[in-house]
């Protein structure tokens, strides 16, 4: 029996999985996966992750919210959108296990930092009201993201997904009591900084994720990613923490269960 694993961050509702979504899920189950958490990026995909969870009860779970790169809209539209998303949380308590992905992304320049921050803070408030964990997306904005959470994140917990900050920023994330997750890019030869950050994250704060269809780990780099590939990431994390795949899967699965209350 393979060890139980959880992919805490995937986008299996993307059309890149339209031809073989069921096989992708089957492959994960065969490899020992007991859950896949699909993360929305806007209002429409928030409904899609819930549908996917309904189609795969107890296996697929939904995280709903507005991604920073999708948050460029007038205040009134944001209000309507977030009200609709909050309603989804009420209507689908069995499927919705978190709010995300939310945060700041300064790599893509389409949405102003002000718009991003407004959506970010409003969704931290939803998470607090609904007592749900958050999934943080951050790119090239680690200090600002941590600032927002330190200032507006009281009573909220969550995970920094696809961590790409420094060792110091990892310490700040951990000081909040939050979890940290590394995607397939932690396996890339040039990603020594990421591996240095992964060293300081204790096993009981670490999650496993693919960010499918993005960021396939080194052996499949450049190809479409899928949940089962996170076992390669698990091997990399095992090497970093001088342990084995089994222990990484045991601890990341327990931590995912605890954070998302699966
Ligand atoms: Zn992300
Ligand atoms: Zn993502």
Describe the structure.
The protein has 262 residues and is of the alpha/beta class. It has one domain (5-260): Alpha-Beta Barrel (TIM Barrel), CATH 3.20.20. It has nine helices and eight strands. Helix 6 (167-175) links the parallel strand 6 (158-160) and strand 7 (179-182). Helix 3 (75-91) runs parallel beside helix 4 (113-130), helix 6 runs parallel beside helix 7 and helix 8 (230-240) crosses helix 9. It starts with a strand and ends with a helix. The structure holds zinc ion (2 copies). Residues 101, 137, 161-162 line the site of one zinc ion.
Summarize the structure.
This protein is of the alpha/beta class and 262 residues long. Helix content is 43%, strand content 17%.
Which quaternary structure do these chains form? single chain
Enumerate the strands of the largest sheet in spatial order, edge to edge or round the barrel.
1-2-3-4-5-6-7-8
The named CATH superfamily: Metal-dependent hydrolases
CATH architecture: Alpha-Beta Barrel
Give the CATH topology.
TIM Barrel
* Stretches with pLDDT under 50, minimum 5 residues: none
Assign an overall shape. Answer: globular
Number of domains: 1
Total count of helical runs of at least 4 residues = 9
Alpha-beta classification: alpha/beta
Distance between the termini: 21 Å
What binds here, in terms of ligands, is: zinc ion
> What proportion of the residues is helical, as a percent range?
40-55%
Order of helices and strands: EHEHEHEHEHEHEHEHH
Give the radius of gyration: 17 Å
Largest sheet: 8 strands, parallel
CATH class: Alpha Beta
Mean pLDDT: 97
Query: Total number of β-strand segments?
Result: 8
